[in-house]
Amino acid sequence: MILNQFLILGAFLFSLGMYGVLVRRNAVLVLLSVELMLAAVNINLVAFDAYLRDAIAGGQIFALFVITVAAAEVGIGLAIVLLIFRNRQSANVDEMDLMKL
Amino acid sequence: MGDWLSEVANWWFAAVALAMGYAAYRVVTSANVVHAVLALVATLGGSAVLFLLLGAEFVVWTVVLVYIGAVIVLFLFGIMITRAPLGYEAELDHPPKTKALAAIVAGAMFLLIGWTLVDAFGTEEVTASVTTVGDIGLQLFGRFVLPFEVVSLVLLAALIGGIVLARQDPVDIEDQR
Amino acid sequence: MSALFDYHALAPELILAFTVMAVLAVDLMPVPKYYAAVTGLVGLFASIIPLLTLALCSELSFCSDNGARLLFGDSYVVDTFSLVLKGLFLVSAFISLLLAVGYVESDRYYQGEYYFLLLASVFGAVVMASSRDLISIFVGLELVSGPAFLLAGWRKGDARSNEAALKFFIVGVLSAAILLFGMSLIYGVTGELTFSGIRAATVGGELPAVFTLGVLFVLMGFAFKVSAVPFHFWTPDTYEGAPTPVTAYLSVGSKAAGFVGLLVICYSAFANMRDIWGPALWIIAVASMTLGNLIAVRQTNVIRLLGYSSIAQGGFMLAPFAVASMVEGVELEGALFATVTYLLFYAFMNLGAFGVVMAGMSKVKSAELSSWSGMAQYAPGLSMLVVIFFFALAGVPPLAGWFAKLVMFQAIISGAPNVWAVLLGVIAAVNAVVAFFYYAKVVKTVWMDSVPVEIPAAELGGSGLNPALALALGITAIATIVTGLFPGVLSFFGEATRTFASGF
């Protein structure tokens, strides 16, 4: 296995996630795209960890923290979406136009 | 190239990577919210296989249990509770003009990152280095104990704040009657 | 040492963590809700005490050692720099909590949880000030922003507050993902997580382009947090929609946390990459101050005006970073000193300004500038505070802001022969004048204009300030006046952090 096969896949997922964030209007789908970007980060971290033969397994532990924080973020995000849905009956990001830019 | 093909792990990688690439593409393009979530499950499952190839066993099971087990269920619950449209819907994306622009941005970013990665790491080899749960645990509760404690507070804050925001206030219910 | 950890060094964090839990527990007890706030205030005060004993360690008999304390394999460092910034976070949290007490009591808000989330966010900022590795600083940053997303949506029934929370959240998670991708690249190239390790791995030697990309991604991630142009678009909407005391916290506490992350990571981890982040931050600083000020001029809502002005102020704080790529030695220390000092002065002025806005809104029920006109006729005291804080933000001597602007310009001039430093100085000077214009506009409206006809003046005189808000206004007003007359009071703390830049 060469390192770059993992890293390029990671870069591909990250770019796709960025595309999703820019393209999606629905808040839940934007959040899904961000999860895709975080998955790319995890692939990078674990691949680098194996490549570097890190004695303290820094990359793997970093990946664990990323997963945990992502879980917390999903919880927060869905709570906000739920709140908005109750008030507006919609979860689309750009229907939020009460305030001008 | 012949060496690369002779390695069994690479065949696994190629199969999983292709599946992941397609699933990830579905995540950002699917016109159906539930399909997009299921595609994310497939992508994350694929990443778990990659971690297995790299010998990161604990991360594999964390991804399967926390991500696929908990986060995805949370997503699906969120979609169902908000009674989001479960069928196909054209309203999910921005108009095609924005899409083209976004595709150019994302494509340029991929080329930039990919080029710098090839430039930096070329064809460096990587082999699986098996890390046991014990190794991870020792590090997590020694060198990394402070962020470990801090992240527990992140989860607690998300839990409590999430409940407060998401719950229907008793008074609101009275208002509706 | 017999103990496993250096508990003295960790004492502020431990007391604060205990306070966070205690607030939750008190909220469950059958006592008045404001007890939870009092618990929080006492806890914040108590966690400042070990900061003092740590700072004065060499003077005290019971204190065993001295200088920077390195914990957890160099990933957590308690030095003068981190002590000063922790002090800033705790004091601004104290004032933010005071601002919030009356506000959350006045309506059906979840009070105990509000104080809990505010303190949890402050805890994250305190951890960030000492973090010296990628994992701790990331986790600290998430603890700062996670509760902040939730607090922005605390006015649950108000669609604008919901929108503020959603915008803030989406930008926040996106910036976190970008930051993490950059961190993963940096980890891959250097093989290190600690800042000291990254710094050592980047001495001399040719670094691949992917490392530069990693640095830029990390900068982008932090630029979102400090709402620097072009990553600022969420700021005005979130500031306007969020409950006002939350906005006050966001514009000071959470923004300062972003700046501290930027300071630590740039001056410590990327100490050898100044030729990368210097120019990048030059562009961001110029864009922030110019665009922030130009849009602020047009605003008719006081909170949006303060939102854009805080973007511009952020540009002033970033300006010394830009100069850091051009200078060495003492001048480099001066650049760090300028940013820290600016942050210290800005915290009091801006918290005070938001306090005034809250007091004004409780009188006229609106943050539109037009409804504030002629306020001096029925609320002369409040109008005096408007003068103090808005002129301080504009940098009018003898109020606090002038000194912050002075050190900022000194830092820029230290790179003087360089054409970019001169250009930056000129742009900053023009911006300072533009900023004066719109701050003065608020003061003029309040003092010179007549009371709008649709509101009978008799109705406006009523309701006095609640005691907590009055106390917060008193503290910030006195701090703004005293530090303006004797800037040494605060710049002493800025001076103490200077060595952080020279350590490497």
CATH architecture of chain B: Up-down Bundle
Q: What is the number of beta strands of chain B? A: 0
Characterize the biggest β-sheet of chain A.
none
Kindly report the greatest chain-chain contact and the residue count on each side: A-B, 68 and 89 residues
Q: What is the N-to-C succession of helices and strands of chain B?
A: HHHHHHHH
Question: What does the largest sheet of chain B look like?
Answer: none
- Measured as a percent range, the helix fraction of chain B is over 70%
CATH homologous superfamily caption of chain B: NADH-ubiquinone/plastoquinone oxidoreductase chain 6, subunit NuoJ
Average pLDDT score of chain A: 85
Strand element count of chain A: 0
Radius of gyration of chain B using CA atoms only: 21 Å
What is the oligomer described by this structure? heterotrimer
- Taking pLDDT < 50 over at least 5 consecutive residues as the criterion, the unreliable ranges of chain B are 173-177
Q: What is the general shape of chain B?
A: globular
Distance N to C terminus of chain B: 71 Å
Q: How does the helix and strand content of chain A classify structurally?
A: mainly alpha
What count of structural domains of chain A?
1
Describe the structure.
The complex is a heterotrimer of chains A (101), B (177) and C (504). With 101 residues, chain A is mainly alpha-helical. Chain A has helices at 3-23, 27-52, 58-88. In chain A, α1 runs antiparallel to α2 and α2 (27-52) runs antiparallel to α3 (58-88). The longest helix of chain A has 31 residues, at 58-88. With 177 residues, chain B is mainly alpha-helical. Chain B has one domain: NADH-ubiquinone/plastoquinone oxidoreductase chain 6, subunit NuoJ (Four Helix Bundle (Hemerythrin (Met), subunit A), Up-down Bundle). In chain B, α2 (8-29) packs antiparallel against α3 and α3 packs antiparallel against α4 (57-81). Chain B is globular and about 65 Å long. The termini of chain B are far apart. Chain C is mostly helical and 504 residues long. Chain C has a domain at 273-504. Helix content of chain C is 75%, strand content 1%. Chain C has a two-stranded antiparallel sheet. In chain C, β1 and β2 (76-78) form a beta hairpin. In chain C, α3 packs parallel to α13 (329-364), α15 (380-394) packs antiparallel against α17 and α16 packs antiparallel against α17 (419-447). The model of chain C has no long low-confidence stretch (mean pLDDT 86). Chains in contact: A-B, A-C, B-C. At the A-B interface, α1, α2 and α3 of A face α2, α3, α4, α5 and α6 of B.
